[in-house]
Amino acid sequence: MPPGFAVKFLLLCTCVRAVRYDTEEEGLLAMEEQAEKEAVRNKRLYFHRINTYYLVDHSTQCAQLCRLTADCKSYQYRQGEQRCEINNATMREFPSHSKTLTGWSYYKRNAIAFFGIWSPCPQESDPCRNGGICTSRLLKTQQTEPNHCRPTCVCPAGFHGDDCQTDARDKVGWKQHGLYAFKVFSDNVTPKRYNEARTACADEGATLGILKDEDTHDFVLALKNMTAPSEKLWIGLSDSEVEGSFAWEDGSPLGDFSQWVPGQPNSQSNRNCVYITPQHATHPSQWGDRSCSSRHVAAYVCQKKLSFWSRAKVVGSSGSSDDATHSADRTTDGHSLTYWRPDDSNRYFNNW
Ligand SMILES: [Ca+2]
Fold it and tell me: Where is the signal peptide (predicted)?
């Protein structure tokens, strides 16, 4: 540990009020510039990945995740996928394990000069599980964050809960596919109408499944065929808003991908909701439109986004919990160096 780091760390955890970080953004920009100079473009290291994080919208965040992971020796980031991979080895150690792959950038752990902007938690007060990493948020000035000695857990995709203790990837039927978890529900005794299925998904913190590509479609079909192969299945697609103009539940129009049964949709104003046909149908596992109030569709699929940040626990510097819990959604202010902002505060959280 460099000597300067230890000093900064001590200052952080004793909450010394005199510490000011007016130049945090300049600091980040300088670090980012330096790191980008050291990036190895279009390279990815294989076989040494110890964690993957999604929804990481900047390489600097990936640097932080590496920095806060004890075993991290290198990291790689793909902007297009907002994907950050943490490795416990370097390309220099395993040159034959690196491959050329467009879009990836590879960095050594120390690509970013580090001067205490981010701090790990003391081990004794680290509540994070399942690969979650613990960090203290640190903000621009002492005025904007009076309680800056608060470790929070950053959960890998697929985990959530205060301490990243909940594994959402494979629990009670939810299965992870990319950034989402899907679950097929079925009840052929009291089948749900489309809107009832939509409400049932909302009760799960989810939406009806959005199957914009073949990969996702096949994934959902596999789920369906495990639990409800003989049922029809509502998906989150309808033309209720504008007849003939099908749109997904997220508001986006039906794109290039579709799996209509030949002759469907038959564009009737009383057939606005889309289902997938049963496995034994004449045209198995394809799409048809039918009345949204039909009770002949006994299954539906819900999806929910797996959050990179979920609920972040706030603990005191002594390690004791307090009641404050920050829902750390990503900010929407468009600032490239702004990461997440707890939504229970209107202060100038510009970091985490
Ligand atoms: Ca219609």
Answer: 1-18
